[in-house]
Design a protein that fits this description.
It is built from 17 helices and 20 strands. By secondary structure, the chain is of the alpha/beta class. The strands form four sheets. It has a seven-stranded mixed β-sheet, with helices on one face. It has a six-stranded mixed β-sheet with strand order 6-7-8-9-12-13, with helices on one face. A five-stranded parallel β-sheet has the order 18-17-16-19-20, with helices on both faces.
């Protein structure tokens, strides 16, 4: 590898995109991955390879960048990468010291590595502070950027958000400057973008259309390499792209898996790797990837799922099985006094279809003991949701006991519709380390379950067809407490994701205003529950969690 003259690769026209899955803080592992991809690209004749935003330390590092040791390990890793990749130019994301009066110690930067050293550094100018992003908390913004020459072009190197302010594409701009436009004015004729752009439904199409608009407007090729993998609640889809000056895609990477993509910077032809097209396939793949990475990056090998015989737990168990393998998933049936025989049979059938271990732990004796102990204090109070919640909390206790004993993570099974209106029990069905489908509406749960069964029928038909029920009282159905899920989900999407007022929702959806206001009140009253919920995987434009920050103690006018 060593001893190559830089002219051998600065004149090369083949460029590679290293779409990798870094782990935050795993400097050794991330550097090894970058070096491995770079060497493969060099062996294939590439003169330059791009890696994602902050690929050296992982994205988003959040407050870890405030630790001096973190920044030092980041710098040492970049030097290791530079020395190990002589013979090919490497662009990778790293943290660099800030020289500003903002009080921020570091910048979000991209480094060009050549001949064993850092040859060029570009720092991020636009720092997002919306939805799940809070980069102004941690980074200082660049005040100027420059181009650099490579393979006969002037490269306009940008970092993720720097490319998201094109005034020709967005009806409302968030920033007063456009880094791409400024770099093109400075002589740039080839746009490079290294990104850590999270997935949500419709994001891949939006990203592609935006980059195409930039290419057409500036009459320049545009290249984006995107991170892949799950980090906490965020799932990154990869889907890296290269586009010609007409905005046509000439190279693309796979979605939801690591990939190495090549294209020719002169002829603007490249490899087109297959991406998932359907919404159901992409969401399901995101959930599988997010679950696998959350578990493995947190040190868990096995998962525990409470199986009720219903559709939510069936989908969650299926995702877990695809994520970590059937040998690493334990399904637990916990029949109570109102559980139907059919529910236990459906849970057992699902476990058999998936090939996972299945255990039965009846909770009726525990439930009756709780009631007996509480009876003197309750003093003949009428039964209400209290007794229902005792059942749910008994199940949560059982699952957490198994988690402690076997060192396995409990995956909670509540969906976005339930979490939105508080149709869930703290310390009961909300217990767990990861809420796999907490950003999946009930109607989407059904769509994903049908998608699963279209590949291989594993979810019992009865789970798909029977009316949803928590089975916490005789003949209970979700519809006793909630509007039809089609109605509820329409209100949730408009109110939570689009921030539309009640009157507009009622008028546009054709839903009675009384129903809309009732649901909105339930949403607002349940904020305290959501802030105690396990982290969930974001797949929508607006998920519950740190991307939606509302006070608990507040009075909201509807």
């Amino acid at each position: 590898m060593a001893g190559h003259s830089s002219s051998l690769y600065t004149n090369a026209v083949k460029i590679a995109l290293g779409q990798i899955n870094p782990t935050i803080g795993d400097f050794s592992g991330n550097a090894t991955k970058i070096i491995d991809f770079a060497r493969k690209a060099q062996a294939a004749g590439a003169g330059l390879i791009l890696f994602p935003e902050l690929s050296v330390c992982g994205y988003p590092p959040r407050d870890l960048v405030e630790r001096h040791s973190f920044v030092a390990h980041n710098r040492e890793s970049v030097q290791r990468i530079a020395e190990a990749t002589r013979g090919i130019a490497v662009i990778c994301g790293m943290v660099t010291p800030a020289k500003s009066e903002t009080g921020k110690a570091v910048m979000n930067s991209a480094a060009l590595l050549m001949d064993g050293k850092i040859a060029f550094v570009q720092s991020k100018m636009l720092l997002p502070t919306y939805d799940v992003f809070d980069e102004q908390r941690n980074f200082a913004a660049a005040t100027a950027q420059q181009t650099f020459p490579f393979c006969g072009n002037q490269m306009a190197l940008t970092i993720c958000e720097d490319a998201w302010n094109d005034k020709q594409f967005w009806p409302k701009r968030l920033y007063s400057v456009d880094p791409v436009e400024a770099l093109i004015r400075a002589g740039g004729n080839f746009v490079l973008n290294i990104s850590a752009s999270p997935f949500w439904i419709g994001k891949r199409e939006l990203r592609r259309d935006m980059l195409a608009s930039i290419a057409r407007q500036h009459k320049a090729p545009v290249v984006m390499v995107n991170q892949v993998g799950g980090n906490d609640s965020l799932v990154f889809d990869g889907s890296s792209l290269a586009l010609n000056a007409e905005g046509q895609v000439i190279a693309q990477g796979k979605s939801f898996e690591e990939d190495l993509i090549f294209f020719d910077s002169k002829t603007l032809t490249g490899e087109m790797h297959e991406q998932m097209e359907s919404e159901e396939a992409s969401v399901y793949s995101a959930l599988v990837l997010g679950t696998r990475d959350y578990m493995h990056k947190c040190g868990f090998q096995k998962a525990i799922v409470g199986l009720s015989g219903g559709i939510d737990s069936a989908l969650t168990a299926t995702i877990a099985t695809d994520a970590v393998g059937p040998e690493n998933v334990i399904g637990v049936g916990m029949p109570g006094p109102y559980s139907s025989p059919g529910s236990i049979a459906d849970a057992r059938a699902l476990a058999g279809n998936l090939g996972i271990r299945f255990e039965i732990l009846p909770i009726t004796p525990v439930y009756e003991t709780y009631r007996q102990i509480l009876n003197p204090v309750f003093n003949r109070c009428p039964e209400d949701a209290t007794e229902e919640n005792i059942q749910s909390r008994a199940r949560g206790t059982m699952l957490m006991a198994l988690s402690n004993k076997f060192g396995a993570i409990v995956l909670s099974t509540g969906n976005k519709s339930e979490l939105g209106v508080g149709y869930c029990t703290l310390y009961g069905d909300m217990a767990g380390g990861l809420a796999v489908i907490s950003d999946v509406s009930k109607t989407l749960v059904y769509r994903l379950s049908h998608y699963v069964n279209s590949r291989r029928p594993v979810i019992p038909q009865a789970s798909l067809e029977k009316p949803p029920s928590a089975e916490l009282r005789p003949d209970q159905k979700d519809s006793d407490s909630l509007p039809a899920y089609e109605v509820l989900d329409a209100i949730l999407e408009d109110y939570v994701e689009q921030s539309r007022p009640a009157e507009r929702i009622a008028n546009e959806q054709g839903i009675p205003i009384e129903t809309v206001t009732k649901v909105i009140r339930m949403i607002e009253r349940s904020e305290y529950k959501r802030q105690q919920a396990a982290p969930g995987l974001k797949v929508s434009a607006k998920a519950f969690g740190y991307g939606r920050r509302f006070p608990i103690a507040a009075k909201t006018e509807i």
